[in-house]
Amino acid sequence: MILRVIVGAAGQLGSAITAASARTGDRTLAVDPLLTEIPPGVDAVRADAGSPAFGDRLKTALAGASRCELILAGGRVPPLVRVPDATSHDLKAALDDVLTTFRALSMFAVSARSAAIGGSIVLISSVGARHPHRHMIGYDAARAGMESLARSFALEYAPHGITTRVLAVGPIAESATSRADGDLAEALIKLVPLGRYPRLDEVAEAAITVASAALDCANGHTITLDGGLTVQLRPADIERAPAQIGRSG
């Protein structure tokens, strides 16, 4: 039996991943202090990951499991702020987010190792960890910190059968940030080579796949889901065509 733990299950993405996990028929444990609606067949912990309540429920849930998978879909999105206007409080909030992630990962990894059960840890990050947004210094710093944690956990716990990886996500079609694009939406979507943003259900299904044993050899690595947005040097609209470059010699 696979036990899949979804941390941050009350958020838009966390809810979608929880629902996708429930459809697999695997045992799903949803963790979030703000949980309200819970899909049928899903167990719930209405507490912060890293809290004693989560630790106690996790130990009980691990009993009888043949594999355990943690998908961390939480993370705060702070207010937009320019770098010159950022304060130490903004960066402290980012650090607090990383510490919360560390506590959740540590409790899961230690519990799984103590139970002698292998599995995986998947952190849902953002392409902003490596390709920064303008005016989102705190958010991008927190996501970059999460990716660093993932690499450290990958080295520490893979010898014990617990692998770690990151799913870095670009703009999501149904997200509040994408809906706020307004008149700029069409122009922004044109920047994506695929011609559209990933859908919420696609990201949720990808998270389940990335957590599976089939991806255990991606230990420590980041997998990007952005329609090709961040692989290009320049968008197609401003890329020079061959005829403009001319022939040399």
Automatic annotation (TrEMBL):
Pfam families: adh_short_C2 (PF13561). This is Oxidoreductase, short chain dehydrogenase/reductase family. Gene3D superfamilies: NAD(P)-binding Rossmann-like Domain. Belongs to the short-chain dehydrogenases/reductases (SDR) family. One of its GO terms (biological process) is fatty acid elongation. One of its GO terms (molecular function) is oxidoreductase activity, acting on the CH-OH group of donors, NAD or NADP as acceptor. It comes from the Bacteria. InterPro entries: NAD(P)-bd_dom_sf, SDR_fam.
